[in-house]
Amino acid sequence: MGLIKTLKRWFNMIFKKQAEEDFNIQAAEFPEMESLINRCANIYRGVPEWLDDKNNIKTINFAKSVCSETARLATLAIGIQIDGSARATWLQEQIDKVYFQIRHWVEYGCAYGTVFIKPNGESLDIFTPADVIIVDYDNQEIKGIIFKDSYTVGRKYYTRLEYHRFVETTINGVTTYPYYVSNRAYVSKSPQSIGDKIDLKQTKWADLMADTPPILKANGEKLDGPLYGVLRTPQANNVDISTLLGLPIFAEAIEELKDFDIAYSRNAGEIFDSQKTVLADDRLLMPNGAPVSAMSPQGMENRRNEMRLPHFVKNVFGQDAKEFYQEINPVLNTDTRIVGMNALLNQIGYKIGFSNGYFVFNEKTGMVTATQVEADDQRTIQFIKDVRDKLECCLNDTIYALNTFADLYGIAPDSNWIYDEKKKKCVQYIVNYDFGDFTYNREEYRIAWYSYVNSGHVTFWRYLVKFYGYTEEEAKKISQEAKEENKTRGFFEEE
After folding, report:
1. Quick one: pLDDT band at residue 494, thresholds 50, 70, 90?
2. Radius of gyration of the chain (CA)
3. Is the pTM value of this prediction over 0.90?
């Protein structure tokens, strides 16, 4: 693990040094954020620093679960409709290609704090903070950034650095802010080296320009934004307020995630160690008439194995005339441990943005599950709304980047300008978003289900399982008892 981390760190240093030399820039440094993002990335990947084989400390990777659940709610039944022209139709086709990846984008954004979505000429690529170098920024936007892309052919490793930036330019007293994109390609024989510079024509990026001409609007004004989208988490960055990078959603709950893994591991260990154990005299475990006096302990164990005795039965080599037999049944302390784990889950969920009680440890299945979102779970609702707002902003910027790239490389039909009522101006396309409703009223839902029971569309036992927490076996037993009692008493019997 340490070697892999060292190699990654070494390659990132080479990556930055090469970019600084070829583009004559100075990379911005965010050491605290880089350290935190790397730490959270390892936690998300299921390799947190607290893993300990010696003490049997494992992880259930709950960080992954909360990122996945956040992404699921945020993208639930998401609809993206782009209208207005032939260009809009082309933009819709590009978004449709990646529709099922949007949920993954949100999950990665939650895990890394920030992800970047950029057109590649055919589709859209996603980049984490480890795959970019921020060059220039202010408190509102990133003005200069370098993306690292790569692919492999046989034993050759190809890397491309793509530099995006706004450049303040003054000509004849008039200041403009043209946008530039520069591409540089490299090839090496090792994934740990960026290698030698080569011509773009020798790579799969042959259709890209080494350096674009100045990119401005048709009227010579500055573009509305950079040619990529940025998805950030909604919470404020309290680690480095100068950077525009977002915090991983579980960054404030790392200690609780550690405590939960330890608690879960100890509970699982206790369950494993709680199996019944039988200590029986060696004479009780041998076939009648078998001589035991001259048999070694190893010989006894071999004979025991031959008899296929259960693993919980242990030999005791008795010395007394009376044969020894004892059963050991450890008492589990799981109820107390589960209470503690649920308290930790409440803490984790609350720090991330969920309502108390959203995540629970189920005593019957032992699985970490999420409750349905009810109308009064305002904290969860607001958190998911904030994530959706960030996603919508990112998608708007990504679609804008796609449209600008289409103009730059001539890869889509021209657009007829149309009037947008919301923006009160003419635009090339109009985007509308529709998100699924993830809230419901539990009581109304329960009443609706009970009506299904009365109409015969749903069995009573299923109703008990869904709303009262019974197991299927328990619910069927209660349902059968109710049927028998109704048959005995009569349906219209008075009390």
Report:
1. very low
2. 32
3. no
